Amino acid sequence: MTSTTPHGAESAYDYVIVGGGTAGCVLAARLTEDPDCRVCVIEGGPSDVGDDRILRLRNWINLLGSEFDYGYTTVEQPRGNSHILHSRARVLGGCSSHNTLISFLPLPEDLDDWVAKGCTGWDPATILPYRDRLQTEIVPVAEADRNPIAKDFVTAASRALGVPVVDDFNARPFTDGAGFFSLAYRPEGNLRSSASVAYLHPVLGRPNLTLKLETWAHRLLTDETGRLTRVAVRGADGEPATVRADREVLLCAGAIDTPRLLMLSGFGPAGDLSRLGIEVRADLPGVGENLLDHPESVIVWETAGPLPPNSAMDSDAGLFLRREAGGSRPDLMFHFYQVPFTVNTERLGYPVPEHGVCMTPNVPRARSTGRMWLRSADPSEHPALDFRYFTDPEGHDERTVVDGLRIAREVASAPPLRDWLVREVAPGPGVTSDADLSEYGRRAAHTVYHPAGTCRMGAADDPMAVCDPQLRLRGAEGVRIVDASVFPTMPTINPMVTVLLVAERAADLLTGRSGPAAHTNAG
């Protein structure tokens, strides 16, 4: 049910979930399986129920910069693109209601990295079996949605680079390959199988579930015992209220808004908070640090005319490569867009073809890390985001993009893809040197909207860990963090399914339920 708290009143539940996004929807559904457990979800945006703008997957690109987008910006990026709009979803379902729903299980080595960072209990054998509990419908792009040019991209990439064609990237761990992605969608009707659709929509009638929509959480408050049990919120009418958790507050607001809320509540780098006049409740220097992303650049071609119209979401196929000898994971990824994605190249002065395609060389495990911080103690002011793109001392990220642009040209020159293409529009065939490709690649770089890591979990002796491997916030009682901000390192692949797995695991940590049985693909 949906409810509004009376002005200034306080309402109480067993669990309060801050953020009705990917993780929050999973937790709300799982926790309310117990009819005696009262759960409240605080979501800053509206419902997605019955809204085809949200529910139709192929409309995702029209959601960017819309009323469903918080639209965060970055500080100046001296070695990258300073004009990126970092979309964060303002709608029930969060980014799973807003993104392309590309769905990959994390690779076993990605989770091994987490264990190496002190995250006991997050090993592949424990986490990957949770795939069997996922309620999202994850399937390879349907045959009817496989555009001929995307098929020819897959064929050309396989032939030119000698990588296999992968029918299902989730069938087993992979080192490289080209193929159509798996998506969380229902091909009939092109409908999302987002976290809200799959987990929440079927249980909205549960009497122990309360959704507070268009409601913004801006501070965590203590109770008379000193536990962080209360959340200060403002509804759409601007009136204040508080929501109390008798058991725990679960922060699921994402890698930007979860650390933002913690810092506004006095949890973060003590010096930074004191300078803003915020009372320090716990000096947690890791809050806002370790800001991760999957940066990517773009190379654009004009096609001879309009392409066939069928597609799931206009970026249905991709390519993974392993450049490093002996590596067991891809270190270069491409999305293949069936539309000319020119938001950054146009700003650099390149023409916009009426019909075109592009490839986006992507850095799967970028070594450049950034940070975020509060500009002021005003909850309405956006925080500062500094991803520090392409600043790793070894130049790994920059080299990955340069290699990617060259490899993209190899694929484009191979049959049958080359028969579709008229000319390279950006950066153009005259841009060939490492220095020129790097300059273009970094200035035209974009994001695939995967911020993570800003409240990372870790061992007790890790001074920068914000939460422990049980997801419990340091320096406080009664709060856990369940979203991509807890990632200690970035998974190689698109991280939405990893967030779903984190949330399913968190539900077991909260309820004491045993995890699923070992899966044959667990590592």
UniProtKB/TrEMBL annotation:
Domain Glucose-methanol-choline oxidoreductase N-terminal residues, every copy: 13-296
Cofactor(s), by name: FAD
GO molecular function annotations of the record: flavin adenine dinucleotide binding; oxidoreductase activity, acting on CH-OH group of donors
Gene3D superfamilies in the cross-refs: 3.30.410.40, FAD/NAD(P)-binding domain (3.50.50.60)
Pfam annotation, one family: GMC_oxred_C
Recorded superkingdom: Bacteria
Chain positions recorded as FAD binding sites: 91
Ranges where the Glucose-methanol-choline oxidoreductase C-terminal domain occurs: 367-503
Protein name: GMC family oxidoreductase N-terminal domain-containing protein
Origin species: Streptomyces genisteinicus
